[in-house]
Amino acid sequence: MKKLIGLRTLKTALGSAIAIIIAESLGLKYAAAAGIITILSVQNTKKTSITIALQRIESTLLALLISGILFWIFGYTAIVFGVYLVIFIPLTVIFKITDGIVVSSVLVTHLLVEKSISVFWIKNEILLMFIGAGIAIVLNIYMPKIEGKIKENQRDIEDYMRKILFHMAEDLRGQSVHIEEEKLFNSLEMTLKEGTERAYRNLNNYIINEAKYYVQYMEMRTLQYEILKYMRKHFVKFYMNFQQTEMVAAFTENVALNLSEYNTAEKLIEELKKIMEACKIQNLPKSREEFENRAMLFQFLNDIEYLLEVKKKFKYNLEEKN
């Protein structure tokens, strides 16, 4: 059961109240706007919160500049406000600060209502934005660690993959597909999606140092998942048992046993090449059916090789960066 009141909700409520109190203590008008800005600026990650806050500060300065010029020349009317939006919105797209459109325009309405672009009101709106966005940034400095949950996802992902490979070895020997495999593939897909979402959230909680490892890990496992799905299709066409089948089944079990986060897959790839060479020197197929099945078996081995190469490349890239 999910919590009804999460950390972000508490941050939003506390931050909004603090922003309003600070704005009121400074004698600012429309102090509640600072609270609203805080509500809109509290995000799920540190990086997102800072990015949005900076965009809104930039857009506010731009909005006050454009609206101030228009109000000074043409007066304080709804039509002029509309003209302001026609100019302001395209510029936010150009400068990539569109997240500030709504909040900045709300602050501009204060000038419209008060019919003034005096230093007092310009300063008032700028301070409202700085207080609201600033409180959101301060509150988002603390983010709960989620590495533990990501590692749980990693363990589950590897466990599902291990079970799938063991089933594939049994499928090769028994020339049939396990019913349980469908559930394993579904569970693996769901865990990969959850792990990937957490990995990106974890990445965005680092401002200076980037934690890309978990994102790269999830991308690697997702690619392997797609390869496993492709490998599974071959079992529909396996209907004869050969000496090579047992060799491939045994190797598939070995891959399952050695599937882990830290395995470089290099030894497995060497072993696979030996198996492929052994298959090549055996007697040629004696029938069309045997030829087709051995071709599918060889393709299955190619897929396993790709599966292992993906892991090898992942470890190699990490070592190269380190």
UniProtKB/TrEMBL annotation:
<dbReference type="InterPro" id="IPR052984">
    <property type="entry name" value="UPF0421"/>
</dbReference>
<dbReference type="InterPro" id="IPR038323">
    <property type="entry name" value="ArAE_1_C_sf"/>
</dbReference>
<protein>
    <submittedName>
        <fullName>Uncharacterized membrane protein YgaE, UPF0421/DUF939 family</fullName>
    </submittedName>
</protein>
<dbReference type="InterPro" id="IPR010343">
    <property type="entry name" value="ArAE_1"/>
</dbReference>
<dbReference type="GO" id="GO:0005886">
    <property type="term" value="C:plasma membrane"/>
</dbReference>
<feature type="transmembrane region" description="Helical">
    <location>
        <begin position="61"/>
        <end position="87"/>
    </location>
</feature>
<keyword id="KW-0472">Membrane</keyword>
<dbReference type="InterPro" id="IPR021062">
    <property type="entry name" value="ArAE_1_C"/>
</dbReference>
<dbReference type="Pfam" id="PF11728">
    <property type="entry name" value="ArAE_1_C"/>
</dbReference>
<keyword id="KW-0812">Transmembrane</keyword>
<feature type="domain" description="Putative aromatic acid exporter C-terminal">
    <location>
        <begin position="148"/>
        <end position="312"/>
    </location>
</feature>
<keyword id="KW-1003">Cell membrane</keyword>
<feature type="transmembrane region" description="Helical">
    <location>
        <begin position="12"/>
        <end position="40"/>
    </location>
</feature>
<dbReference type="Pfam" id="PF06081">
    <property type="entry name" value="ArAE_1"/>
</dbReference>
<feature type="transmembrane region" description="Helical">
    <location>
        <begin position="93"/>
        <end position="113"/>
    </location>
</feature>
<feature type="transmembrane region" description="Helical">
    <location>
        <begin position="125"/>
        <end position="143"/>
    </location>
</feature>
<keyword id="KW-1133">Transmembrane helix</keyword>
